[in-house]
Amino acid sequence: MNVQEYIESGSIESCVLGLADQAEQQELERMCAAYPEVRAARDAFEASLEASAMAGAVAPPPALRDSIFEKITQPESGSLTQPAPVVELPTPEAYSGVGWKKYLVAASVILLAGSAVLNIYLYNRYQQSDSLYKDLLAQQQQLAENNNSIQTRLNELETDLSRIKNPNVQPIKMTAVNNTNSLTTVYWDKNAAEVYLLVNQLPKPEPGKQYQLWAIVNGKPVDAGVIDLEPGDGLVKMKNIPSAEAFAITLENAGGSQSPTLTAMYVLGKV
Hints:
The protein is α+β, with helices and mostly antiparallel strands.
């Protein structure tokens, strides 16, 4: 919390009004010693409270002062047995409608100022708590989403591993051709005619281009599906191929081609 946030938090008003605990009082003293602007804010609030109280101060009625001085200046009779003069104090009626109402107004102003400060202090504390709760809730939701994503990925990897370990699945390593520095692997289940592709390394295609898998059947290429390269992909299900002599990948226009572009072949692997 910076200095301006501390000043606006209501802690200063709370300490001046005696609503804060000892730790907050000590923190205010430390902040005042370290930051002149905090000390100035405290002095300003104390001055405002004093001004509110003085604004409601009531001077004694002039009649009271005159009555007192009149009794004091009266000459003594000289008799020791004479009763002491009795000074009559103004009756409550002398203050009627003036004194007690002003005192009441002053007290009301002070209470109103204290209530306003307390409300600001409590509101700021509520805002801070609400913001902290929302941050914690967002973090909890993010952790839950990350956990679900990780669990989904683990399930996919377990499924891919079970396919690879299937004794009916034949791995076919497809090595680079035309100096493309590429490598992929086809996992082919002959019994189920299922083909899965693992992209080990393929250059990112240019915009408007897409890789396409081909099965070489009786010396002729058969479309086995286009390939969408996504980071972190495991085994990708391709089209079923009942029989094949080899597999190859070429770079074609997006959406695939009816026949392969042999000059754009990247990998080839024989069964």
